[in-house]
Amino acid sequence: LPPPRPGEPNLDYDILLRAARNALAIGNLEEALRRYEILLERFPDDLVSRSEYAGVLVQAKKLREASTQFQ
Description:
- By secondary structure, the chain is mainly α.
- The chain contains four helices and no strands.
- Helix 1 (11-25) runs antiparallel to helix 2 (29-42) and helix 2 runs antiparallel to helix 3.
- The N and C termini lie far apart (32 Å).
- The mean pLDDT is 89.
């Protein structure tokens, strides 16, 4: 699929972010981490996802990994 035009929603991004948030909402930290990692592979410059990912890393007691998300 072609990338969305500026101003149009990016459905791939929305689906991946919702999947990560849903995994977190049901308490499945490992699945949430995996889904955020997939999201960040596709959208590495997205600060919202990176910040949320760091928060999940903190919840999972992966503090060193969390700190690298802000460097």
